[in-house]
Amino acid sequence: MSPVVTAALRRITRRGTPLAAWGWGLAVLTLVATAAVFGVTLEAGHEQVRRAARQRLVIGEAVLRAAVERYGYLPGVLALDTEVRGLLGNLDAPAGIAAVNAKLEAIAEASDVAAIYLLDRDGLTRSASNWDQPLSFVGTSYAYRPYFTEAVATGASRYFGIGTTTNRPGLFIGKAVPARDGGFAGVVVVKIDLEGLQREWRQAGEHVLVSDAAGVVFLASEPAWKYRPFRPLTQVDTARIQAARQYGDSDLRPLLSEWIDGGTIELPCGDGTMSGIVERAAMPDLGWTLWYVAETDATLRQALLASLAAGIACLAFAFALAAASQRRQRLRSEQAMRLTLERRVAERTSDLSTANARLRGEIAERERATAALRATQDELIHAGRLAALGQISTAINHEINQPLAALRTFLSSSSVFLERGDTATVGRNLKRMTEVTQRIAEIIRHLKVFARKTGPEHWEPVRLDAAAAAALDLLAARIRVEAVQVTCAIPPEATVRAEPVRLEQVILNLMVNALDAMRDAPERRLDLTAMREAASCWRLCVADSGSGISEEHMPHVFDPFFTTKAAGEGLGLGLSLSSLIVRDFGGSLAAANGARGAVLTLVLPAAEA
Ligand code: ADP
Questions:
Q1: Pairing mode of beta strands 485-489, 525-533
Q2: pTM above 0.70, yes or no
């Protein structure tokens, strides 16, 4: 393919021409290439055929010339023969005729010519090699035949024609026989049969023709071509040939309807036609033209095959090109997709980074808020504990004042007993005073522990009975004063996971509420009961015999600042903070009414869970 076409195709593929244009372009390209290859191959094949035809023509001419020349001398030799000349000098001598007949017969047989005969000056056959055969020439006049008239006129003649007696074609070579007195005595004619030559051509598969000066084919490898001119004859030639009966009764129809010089021709061949290229060689001395027809079917087949191969190559090239283009397009779209993907990933990543940063900020903010909330809750719980302490401060006062009064009594009585010298009683008093101070120290230590700030993180196994006992201890004075009957049914193995001070704060809150509720009750009972709740929890019920919680208040008792107590007696934070603490431990706090008063139920995870 030319570089121009390649460059054009490259430009087309680069621009991404539509598929239909591609298809048309390639179809045109394939057609052009196929036609070009067909033309070039056909021309090359024709040239080769032409060359071969020219070579065959040289050989054919040599063979034809050899066949003609082989006996060319014979009429001349016979014209000098004394017996022949003697016979023509004395035409009525039978012995002379018989001798010449025998001579001509012997020579014809020895040289393998069709016939040898002797014409007198009037063209009448006087002697012939076939004198004894049914179609003998003897006695027949050939005065009208051109080989006689020409020999009379010029001394020698060559003429190809169909024998009027035998109807067999042949080359007639005539030679004038001079008379003894120097004039013209007759003509010796040798007829050469060239049928064998035609047979040889046919057997060799060669298409050879020989035409005379008028263009009429008289020798041909194909019988159908014989006695027909290549081109239509002139009227003069037609009349002349027919007058001389040169080619018998042949109608002299032209072989070709149209003559294309140098091109291929179509000739009738057998039952059909054959196409071929014609090369010719003129044989001016004989007035003949030798034609060689070289078949072009094989060349045509070759050209078709070559063009087919070119077409296939073009298509293959087209397919390769299309595949390459598709691949390029796919790569381009893949790259575009990759770039889009990368851009989107970058965008998403940036979005995610922003969202992440925002989220981190929000988490930090939330953590800060949670920490602040936790701190506030801790503060609140601590404040609630202090408030609870405030609520029971009278009882605590009483709890401390009582031993202090006892201490004062022991001191004054001890000084009296000391003056009396009753050291034994003083000793006993001192012992009891020590116990009283220990009790005061114990109460203060308990208060200190209770009032200290705690966090939810110090969780540990806490015995429920111990926590309840600690709360009861803080309320001991009030329970005593208000004559509350307390029962505590908490098994020693009831241990929960909690922060001990906060758990004591919850139980204390529940007990204070119970004592408050029972203030006006005729019977005051406070029952603490603990039991196993499922496998992993303990339930502690604080039941009183107070007023209970009205239906109307029930939904609000855990709300912050909900209180039914008089101002200064309650802040309404006890149950809400207790609930908060218990939830923190992973447990729950619920309020209900029992048979007599309220029942507050605390559920906490068991320490071993
Ligand atoms: P406060 O004790 O300061 O009022 P609490 O949150 O501890 O705040 O209690 C809220 C309210 O729930 C109480 O005012 C009371 O009306 C009711 N309450 C709590 N415990 C009992 C109880 N054992 N018997 C009757 N009412 C109770």
A1: parallel
A2: no
